[in-house]
Amino acid sequence: MARPTVRSASRSQVGLVALGGGAGAHASHLASGRVTLVGAGPGDPELLTIKALKALQAADVVVHDGLVSDEILDLAPVAARRINVAKRKSRHTLPQDDINQLLVALALEGLTVVRLKGGDPFLFGRGGEELAACRTAGVDCAVVPGVTAALAASAGAGAPLTHRGSAQAVTFVTGHAAHGEPDLDWTALARPNQTVVVYMGVSTAGLIAERLTAAGRAGGVPALIVENASRADERRILTTLAGLAVAAEGLKGPALLMVGEAMAMADVGVPDLSASLVLQSASLRS
Question: Which of 28, 163, 54 is nearest to 114 (CA)?
């Protein structure tokens, strides 16, 4: 039996998605369709897991975030449909509820669906909501973890997230809240000898520095900002908690704020990664 047609827009636009077949098609394909939530990592294609690569290469449809690099999208089969559901601050191509429904609908058409997400699906990626939607609809859903941006940023800069004598703990938080400032335990985050990694915190860098300082964190504590971790245009800025707001000004790409004593070990020189990324992508496709 021929598979239903799924039409999508190019990578840059989501457009309309047309699903063929009716209730009979749903019933006949229900057992074969599935969704896999795949962590694409921070951008470097060589940071994909083998399992993630295999899932991507088997996909009929790839529903991807805007932060997924072209080098990784190119690893999907040429015939696979690509649906861009990019979410950026205050601008969503599709609301999350619609993305959930889209994944379910595609799977019920009998398609092998990869939901390709930057970083890791379960770390500020809303993968739990998508998994829950699939479970509710009776759709088979698996999760493939990915390298989250903090790990890539830490490794690339040579600044360990934990380090004996200076960082006995690491905490990941989000600097973005739907309404107002993030609801965080500033007192706990301000304790010494730990690393605090803030995702989506560039626009609130000043507020974060202010709250941590007011809670007792010293203004001279090292702080590292990494923009576009692991990508060809990666940028690193080593500063202090007191200088965090000024250092974050003008950043356009996705960036992490990393505060803690161990960040003093950071190497802020970034090698030219552009040539190696092209070679890596070609090697993975072959």
Answer: 54
Label residue 64 exposed, middle or buried (CB < 10 Å: 0-12, 13-18, 19+). buried
Task: Please give the pLDDT value at position 118.
Answer: 95
Nearest to 102 by CA among 21, 5, 39, 16: 16
Verify whether residue 87 is a known catalytic residue: yes
Of 87, 98, 252, 272, the active-site residue reads 87
Q: Which residues of 211-243 are buried (b: 16+ CB within 10 A; e: fewer)?
A: bbbeeebeeebbbbbbbbbbbbebbbbbbbbeb
Within its chain, how far is the Cα of 21 from the centroid?
Answer: 33
Mean pLDDT, the chain cut into blocks of 10 residues (286 residues total): 41 46 44 90 95 98 93 96 81 83 97 97 96 97 98 97 96 82 92 96 94 97 97 95 96 94 92 48 55
Active site residue: 44, 65, 117, 120, which one? 65
